[in-house]
Write a structure and sequence with these properties.
This protein is α+β, with helices and mostly antiparallel strands and about 280 residues long. The protein is built from 12 helices and 7 strands.
C-alpha cells in the first residue's frame, strides 16, 4: 500500500511499450521511513504531464494521487509532487579531481606495454568515461559514478598491496582495477540533463556484458592475467562472472579484484541523494 503523507525516494525508472502500442512508465519508490519498496505504473497520459527530471534516481517525491492494485501488487500513479531534487552526479571540478587521481594510478603501471595499453583506452574514451555511471541501480549510479568507482578500486588496491607478504604483480592489479568496468561506457547511457540511466540498446547485440568486453580487449592485447582478473571480478557466474571463484587452484589476485570491486560497490556513494548529503 501507499500513503500520500509519506516521502519516497526514486530508486529506478524506465519507459516501455504496452501491447496497445502506448507508452508505460515503471517507477520503483523506496519509503524513506521504513525502506519498503513500492512498484508503480504510470500510463502515457500521466507521463505526458511530467518533466522526466522528476524521475531522477535519488529524488524525493510525494504521491499526490494514486490507486493500489492488489492483484498486481503495484500502485497506479496519476500525480506526483517533487519534494527534493537529487544531484545529477559529481560536478566538473570533482570530475577533474578524480580524473587526475586516475592518471596517477595509470602512471603507477611501470610495464611500458601495459601502461601504454591502459593509457590509450582512457585517452580514446575520456569524455565518455568521465560522465558514465557505474550501474543503473546497484551502486555509483550517477554522472561520474564509474570514474569514482574505478578510482576507489585502485585506492583500495594500493592500500592492500602495501600489506601483502605474497608477491604480486602490481602492474597487473592496477590495470585490472582500472579496466574491470571499462565496458560500461558502452553498456549504459545517461541523460546529462535528467540524470536518467538506461541500457545502451545495441550493446547486448555485440557483447554479453561489460566483463566480457574488458576480458576480450585484454586477451587480444596479450594481457592474460589482467583478463582473468576482470573475468572473475563478479565472483560467481550467476552474478555475471566469466570465471567462478568457487573453482579450485585460482590465483589469489582473482579474489583480490572481486573483493575490492565489491567493497567499493558496498561502501561507495550508491545514490545521488546520499552523494548530496556527503
Amino acid at each position: 500500500m501507499f500513503s500520500t503523507e509519506d516521502i519516497y525516494e526514486v530508486v529506478i525508472f524506465s519507459i516501455g511499450d504496452t501491447k496497445a502500442g502506448t507508452k508505460m512508465g515503471k517507477l520503483q519508490l523506496k519509503n524513506t521511513t521504513d525502506d519498503t519498496l513500492l512498484n508503480c505504473i504510470l500510463w502515457e497520459e500521466t507521463l505526458n504531464r511530467f518533466d522526466n527530471k522528476i524521475f531522477r534516481t535519488g529524488n524525493l517525491v510525494r504521491i499526490v494521487s494514486a490507486s493500489f492494485n492488489e492483484k498486481f501488487n503495484n500502485c497506479l500513479v496519476s500525480a506526483l509532487e517533487l519534494v527534493k531534487e537529487a544531484k545529477l552526479g559529481i560536478n566538473e571540478t570533482e570530475i577533474e579531481k578524480y580524473w587526475t587521481k586516475l592518471q596517477y594510478y595509470i602512471e603507477k603501471i611501470k610495464d611500458e606495454k601495459l601502461h601504454n595499453f591502459v593509457a590509450e583506452q582512457f585517452k580514446q574514451h575520456e569524455q565518455q568515461f568521465k560522465i558514465m555511471p557505474a550501474a543503473k541501480l546497484m551502486h555509483h549510479n550517477y554522472i561520474g559514478g564509474l570514474l569514482v568507482h574505478t578510482v576507489e578500486c585502485a585506492e583500495f588496491a594500493e592500500l592492500n598491496m602495501a600489506k601483502f607478504t605474497y608477491k604480486t604483480n602490481e602492474d597487473e592489479i592496477y590495470a585490472a582495477c582500472l579496466l574491470h568496468d571499462f565496458g560500461k561506457i558502452f553498456e549504459y547511457t545517461i541523460d546529462t540533463e535528467t540524470g536518467l540511466i538506461d541500457y545502451a540498446p545495441r550493446f547486448r547485440e555485440e557483447w554479453i556484458s561489460h566483463s566480457q568486453y574488458g576480458f576480450s580487449i585484454c586477451m587480444t592485447a596479450g594481457f592474460k592475467m589482467v583478463a582473468k582478473m576482470i573475468a572473475a571480478h563478479h565472483g560467481r557466474t550467476d552474478w555475471g562472472a566469466i570465471i567462478d571463484l568457487d573453482q579450485k587452484d585460482l590465483e589469489p589476485e582473482l579474489y583480490l579484484i572481486h573483493f575490492i570491486d565489491n567493497l567499493s560497490a558496498k561502501f561507495g556513494k550508491i545514490s545521488t541523494r546520499l552523494l548530496a548529503e556527503n
